[in-house]
Amino acid sequence: MAKHRAPRYVRTKKVLAKAPVAAGATVVGFGVLSSPAQASAGTTVLAHAVEVPVATPAADAGAAAPEADHTVERGDTIAEIAAAHGQSWRELYQRNAGVIGADPNRIFPGQVLLTAGPATAAPAAPAAPAPLPGSAGNAAPAAAVAPLAAVAPAPAAAPALAAAPAATARITNSAGSVAPQVQAAADRVVSEVPGADSITIGGTRASAADPNGHPSGLALDYMVGSDAALGDAIVAFHVAHWDELGVEYVIWEQRILTSPTGAWKAMADRGSATANHMDHPHVNYVG
């Protein structure tokens, strides 16, 4: 007896099963006919399509795509960046709290903000207020704006006023009193420079060479004698508080200083230790 060949539709099914499948293609399997006669009779039988999920490069790329980010530029605001990515300013802030910090009113050019992904931890700080319009480039919708007083930076602390002098300087004058600001400067010196309260301080005199100095009550001679260390301390105090004391210039040990940040300049020899200011700093104050 002759061997029967397998029906053609069976071989066709096997061929389809072995055929290579292109990425993303749909494999169509044909339903098994009840008998070869049905096929030869012209009976139409609908094939059953079976989709085989196949990973494609495009799908893989989408699954592994990095989270979107936005680099802050000058003029950017939290609200504008959030709106451009279809989210609220609060969502954007909570996602980037670790970058922005506790204050959503302050973002800076160059910061990279994630526009997708989980929120990041913010530094320990009080609850952040809503961003204010025009506050360092950030703005929030009007409904979320907090009162200005809630987020306005604290004003800079005013410089502490100098304490009142603890002592009054005894100034030797022979041509009237020194100017009030000169007396005040001397009071500071004897109160704050150790040892200065025990020396003689020369004030006004008519025979001074500089009419805008001793004769005008605008100069003092701190007579330290041989105590050069005390003279150095008195000079250093004047340099450190130049503007507060109203210093114009200082002469000490045959040198003159006309600015707290300037350099000492040598003076001509006047012939004696006192004339060369070797035993006393001379200070002229601004009138």
TrEMBL record:
Gene3D superfamilies: LysM domain. The lineage of its organism: Bacteria, Bacillati, Actinomycetota, Actinomycetes, Geodermatophilales. Residues 68-115 form the LysM domain. It comes from the Bacteria. Residues 1-39 form the signal peptide. SUPFAM superfamilies: LysM domain. It holds the Pfam family VldE. Keywords: Signal. This is LysM repeat-containing protein.
